[in-house]
Specification:
64% of the residues lie in helices and 4% in strands. With 465 residues, the protein is mainly alpha-helical. The relative contact order is 0.11.
Length: 465
């Protein structure tokens, strides 16, 4: 991703665009020599000297595109007079940006698919392991570790769909001239609109796009940046959600991100195992969400056929968005490759809360034995409040089960208590839902079909800082 958004790749993509334009113009009958084309083709790669020439010229002219026209012309003197023929600066800047958006999405999509697959493997491994569910930050009906992971997977599948759609919707700006009317090319081809259209189609195909936007101004509409940015921002929000959940679970000591043998959690508190990966994920996710706002404001601020206040902000925002998203893919890959689950801690935490959750089962069991539902409810209410007082005011363990066992009223169901307290009876259809969602022909596998080659060849991402 860093190479894609490097200065060298940018300048070399501009040179490719100039080459493609010249090749197409020659193909359609314009007087461009074979030698000119050969020189352009053999000088696509930027040299140190090329950059030096462009730098001097840009300082002199205060125009980056014309600086590179000059540098390319110096490297390919036979073509110097036809480089950029009929084009406007946005022919190279905007078309190059569309190439970068496309290629950057192509980099991200397989990485996201890999993360989904790794979380899927995790979810299937722990689809039957009961754990506390939480609503309002308070213990709620049990779920399973695998079912909770499916919440994350579902959000990531939405992100996968959003990014795929953004990638699919991208088109080329094409060869449109200064205000999008193709006037300069109509002039060059003596009013032959069919040739102007063919020129647009040829260059579009050379750039690897299926089609170009029919309508443009001097630029492609900045709504495209909004569209792509919102898909990335949505992914950033998902990263914050997943990172936040893992941080909470680490706080409970139920699930932890990878923690290496010699890793230090705190410079002062040597015992700490800080979830720095998940914290970084939340931080960068927030950054990605905020970067996308620049695209919205830039699109809204455009005047008529174009204003240049979009330029500087896009040159920083677009690369930063994709570099941030790529960093998040690496983080999620690393985290999901080594999530650690602590079943004993999870069981203890369930046991702390399960007595209260099981009270409805006790009441129903008493009704099955022929006792009054209201009378059973009142006995449970009194015992529950007594147990809660021991927990909250005296710091003791939850002893509700012992109180139930000691109450003669509940003697008819004493032998049923182990069954009524079995955590697996409190998880509903969680395991079946995981299987349906992630199994053969499930939503996950259908979404990942096109990425199987990348998934099979992938190795776990490594963090170096």
């Amino acid at each position: 991703m860093k190479e894609l958004f490097s200065l060298a790749r940018r300048a070399e993509t501009w040179r490719l665009l100039w080459l493609w334009l010249a090749e197409a113009q020659k193909e359609l009958g314009l007087p461009i020599s074979d030698k000119a084309i050969d020189q352009l083709r053999s000088h696509i790669t930027m040299t140190t000297h090329d950059f030096e020439v462009a730098e001097v010229e840009e300082k002199r002219r205060r125009h980056d595109v014309m600086a590179h026209v000059h540098a390319f012309g110096e490297a390919a003197p036979e073509a110097a007079g036809i480089i950029h023929w009929g084009a406007t600066s946005c022919y190279v800047t905007d078309n190059a940006d569309l190439v970068f958006l496309r290629d950057a999405l192509n980099i991200l999509l397989p990485k996201l698919a890999v993360v989904v697959q790794k979380l899927t493997d995790f979810a299937r491994t722990y689809k039957d392991l009961p754990c506390l569910g939480y609503t309002h930050g308070q213990p709620a009906q049990l779920v399973t570790v695998g079912k909770r992971a499916c919440l994350w997977i579902q959000d990531l599948l939405i992100d996968l769909r959003n990014l795929e759609r953004a990638r699919h919707d991208l088109r080329f700006r094409g060869v449109k001239g200064t205000t999008g009317t193709q006037a300069s090319f109509l002039h060059i081809f003596k009013g032959d609109y069919a040739k102007v259209e063919e020129l647009d189609a040829i260059v579009t195909k050379k750039a690897g796009f299926d089609s170009a936007y029919v309508i443009s101004s001097q630029t492609y509409t900045r709504k495209i940046d909004v569209d792509v940015g919102q898909a990335l921002a949505s992914f950033g929000a998902t990263c914050q959600r997943i990172g936040g959940d893992i941080r909470h679970l680490a706080m409970f000591k139920e699930v932890e991100e990878p923690f290496e043998k010699d890793q230090i959690g705190s410079s002062a508190m040597a015992y700490k195992r800080n979830p720095m990966r998940s914290e970084r994920t939340c931080s960068l996710g927030r950054q990605l969400c905020n970067l996308a706002r620049n695209n919205v404001d830039t699109f809204a601020a455009q005047w008529l056929e174009r204003s240049l206040d979009d330029s500087a902000v896009r040159r920083s925002t677009l690369p930063e968005m994709f570099l941030t998203a790529d960093a998040l893919m690496i983080l999620l890959d690393n985290i999901c490759s080594g999530l650690v689950v602590y079943p004993a801690v999870i069981k203890r935490r369930i046991n702390d809360e399960l007595p209260f959750m099981a009270t409805e089962n006790f009441i129903m069991a008493m009704v099955d034995k022929g006792y009054s539902r209201q009378e059973a409810h009142e006995h449970i209410r009194v015992l529950s409040h007594e147990a809660a007082d021991q927990v909250k005011n005296h710091g003791k363990d939850n002893d509700l089960i012992q109180r139930v066992a000691n109450d003669p009223f509940f003697e008819p169901i004493l032998d049923d208590l182990p069954r009524l307290l079995d955590p697996t009876t409190f998880i509903g259809a969680a395991p079946q839902q995981v299987e349906k969602f992630t199994g053969p022909d499930g939503e996950v596998q259908l979404a990942l079909q096109k990425y199987q080659t990348q998934i099979a060849s992938h190795k776990a991402a490594q963090l170096h800082v």
